[in-house]
Design goal:
The complex is a heterodimer. Chain A is 16% helix and 38% strand. By secondary structure, chain A is α+β, with helices and mostly antiparallel strands. Chain A folds into 2 domains: 2-20 and 121-223; 74-117, no CATH class. In chain A, the strands form 3 sheets. In chain A, strands 1-2-10-13-12-11-9 form a 7-stranded mixed beta barrel. In chain A, strands 3-4 form a two-stranded antiparallel sheet. Chain A is elongated and about 80 Å long. The two termini of chain A are 37 Å apart. Chain B has a domain at 1-23 and 79-188. In chain B, the strands form 2 sheets. Chain B has an 8-stranded mixed β-sheet with strand order 2-1-9-11-12-13-10-3. Chain B has a two-stranded antiparallel ribbon with strand order 6-7. Classes of the chains: A alpha+beta, B mainly beta. The interface between A and B is large, with 98 and 98 residues. Strand 5 (40-45) of chain A pairs antiparallel with strand 6 of chain B.
Chain lengths: 231, 194
């Protein structure tokens, strides 16, 4: 993912967020008549929509099969299926064309606190991300206060962005600990990396070793604390 | 929940685990579709053929090997060597070891789960690092135990190892990362609804 980072001098560089997820170290194998194969997950239809098995539990289906011998629709049951789009159905399982989406905010106890029209959260990293002069954290405070749920490595794309990032790490970031980043037009919004993503507080960490640098982006959307009693 | 024993700096601590999620702290959110009469609607998936509306429970997942479905037991092997992988036992069966760590080390843990350890009383500000597997599995999970003013917490996830980067970065890294991102988006289909 490409980002633009603006420093205190209002200089901006285009950089890249490198995912640190390593490749999988293991794989599953199933022995078949043709040798060992990697199995794939496949969705199949397990009951005919609106048919006699709909809304029945497996034991109720088994009981019905024993008692009245209804037919299993072999045309549908077990058929591989690939879902391509989404629809909304009413109580009679009829598709509804006119609907509205609402977002319900819940309290930690599960009660509805607020209902409002649903608005998709859009990523806000297309605009330059600004290094904030406020909210810096020492490493000790960072891990004691927040749960870091995602870490990316920030890397340069060309010699200009290398100079920018290396200098930033050398002269500022490595002395400041975790530096808060701000997004949006005013540079005061939390970061949303993807469409429908949760807003997260973003912190940048930079270190240098000789003529190399290591710059990481740490995202958090949770404090490290216990829930209130009763929730 | 069952209690787990932790060997923290060669001292045994026994505690239950209480999972702490974001919803427990701040409350959750849910999106609902309402019909013209403001009654909640049911979400359904439409398959490629477009002739069915499938709701939760109408489809299930099976395992396919090649062209055929299979119920055969899967064997887990190392991707690189092809050797059978040993099972990593659950930490409830085998007490995990934790050693003192710096905040810098812990800051590279990408956390997937947070648990409160009400039975472990450590002095606030201390950090320990080790491994923790809630269930038996084939991948070992990294973990940290931290104590602050709110209690003692177990954080489980994966330790990331970012390297130092010089001027000549391997552009292949960026190309691979961008490609995997695109592939990830393409596979985010509606089947995840179920």
């Amino acid at each position: 993912m490409y980002i633009k980072l603006t420093n205190f001098q209002k200089r901006t560089a285009e950089l890249f967020l490198l995912s640190l997820n390593g490749s999988k170290t293991s794989k599953r194998l199933v022995t078949t008549a043709n040798g060992q194969m990697e199995p794939e997950s496949q969705a199949i239809i397990t009951r005919v929509p609106g048919g006699w098995t709909a809304d029945r539990k497996p034991e109720q289906i088994a009981e019905a099969l024993v008692k009245s011998d209804p037919e299993i629709d072999t045309q549908f049951i077990g058929k591989p299926v690939r879902i391509r789009s989404l629809a909304y159905l009413d109580e009679q399982r009829r598709p509804v064309c006119h609907f509205r989406l609402v977002e319900e905010k819940l309290t930690p106890e599960g009660a509805v606190k607020e209902t409002k029209p649903y608005k998709v959260s859009e990523p806000n990293v297309e605009l330059p991300i600004q290094i904030s002069p406020k909210g810096n954290q020492k490493a000790e405070d960072m891990v004691q206060k927040f749960v870091l749920h995602k870490i990316y490595q920030v890397v340069h794309l060309d010699s200009l962005s290398f100079d920018f990032l290396y200098t930033e790490c050398k002269e500022r970031l490595q002395h400041l600990g975790f530096v808060r980043l701000g997004c949006g037009l005013k540079g005061n919004e939390p970061m949303i990396l993807r469409k429908e993503g949760l807003p997260s507080f973003a912190y940048l960490r930079g270190r240098i070793d000789g003529d190399k640098y290591c710059c990481t982006l740490h995202l958090t959307h949770q404090e490290l604390r216990a829930p209130a009693p009763g929730s | 929940m069952a209690a787990c024993t932790f060997n923290i700096d060669s001292t045994k601590h026994v505690s239950e685990l209480q999972k702490v999620t974001r919803d427990d702290l701040y409350g959750g959110r849910r999106v609902q579709a309402l019909g013209p009469d403001s009654k909640p609607l049911r979400r359904a998936g439409v398959p490629e053929e477009g002739n069915l509306y499938l709701v939760s429970g109408d489809i299930a997942r099976t395992v396919r090997a090649g062209e055929q479905f299979t119920l055969g037991a899967a064997e887990v092997v190392d991707s690189a060597t092809g050797q059978k992988k040993d099972v990593v036992p659950s930490s409830f069966k085998q007490a995990p070891e934790f050693r003192k760590a710096t905040a810098e080390e812990v800051s590279l843990l990408e956390v997937a789960s947070v648990y409160l350890l009400p039975g472990a009383h450590l002095s606030p500000g201390t950090c320990y690092i080790g491994t923790f597997n809630y269930r038996d599995g084939f991948e070992r999970n990294d973990a940290a135990i931290l104590a602050n003013g709110h209690g003692t917490f177990l954080l489980v996830g994966k330790l990331k190892k970012p390297g130092f980067v010089g001027m000549e970065i391997d552009s292949q890294l960026i190309a691979e990362s961008a490609a995997s991102e695109e592939a990830g988006e393409a596979t985010e289909n509606f089947e995840s609804l179920f």
